[in-house]
Amino acid sequence: MILPAETYIELTADLADAILCETYLDDILTEEDNGDIRYTKNAQERFNEHLDMVCEKLSAYGICKEGE
């Protein structure tokens, strides 16, 4: 199944974020000096790991984004 790139990116990011929020025990978000809210450095690293796992699992089931 080929998903539009925008849909695929949104889906994978939502799934990775959901996993992070359910499993990460430390603070997830931090506020920058300019007011931006971001993941903490460690939470960002974990999010990236979860995102890679989600993409691998979807790929194993033949789900990918257009252009791949």
Describe what this molecule looks like in 3D.
This protein has 68 residues and is α+β, with helices and mostly antiparallel strands. The protein has one domain. It is built from 2 helices and 4 strands, in the order βαββαβ. The strands form 2 sheets. Strands 1-4 form a two-stranded parallel ribbon. A hairpin with a 5-residue loop joins strand 2 (29-31) and strand 3. Helix 1 (5-23) packs across helix 2 (41-60). The radius of gyration is 14 Å and the shape is elongated. The chain starts with a strand and ends with a strand. 7% of the residues are buried. The model has no long low-confidence stretch (mean pLDDT 96).
Secondary structure layout:
Elements (H helix, E strand, L loop, with lengths): L1 E2 L1 H19 L5 E3 L5 E3 L1 H20 L3 E2 L3
Parallel strand pairs: 1-4
Antiparallel strand pairs: 2-3
Helix pairs in contact: 1-2
Short description:
The chain has helices at 5-23, 41-60, and strands spanning 2-3, 29-31, 37-39, 64-65. The protein has 68 residues and is an alpha+beta fold.
End-to-end Cα distance, whole Å, is 11 Å
Let me know the number of strands: 4
Mean pLDDT: 96
Number of helices: 2
The coarse overall form would be elongated
Q: What structural category characterises the helix and strand content?
A: alpha+beta
Q: H/E element string?
A: EHEEHE
Give a quick account of the main beta sheet: strands, pairing sense, barrel closure: 2 strands, parallel
Walk across the major sheet and give the strand order.
1-4
Total of domains:
1
Helical content stands at 55-70%
Taking all Cα atoms into account, the compactness measure Rg is: 14 Å
Which spans have pLDDT < 50 for at least 5 consecutive residues?
none
Roughly what fraction of the amino acids lie in strands? 5-15%
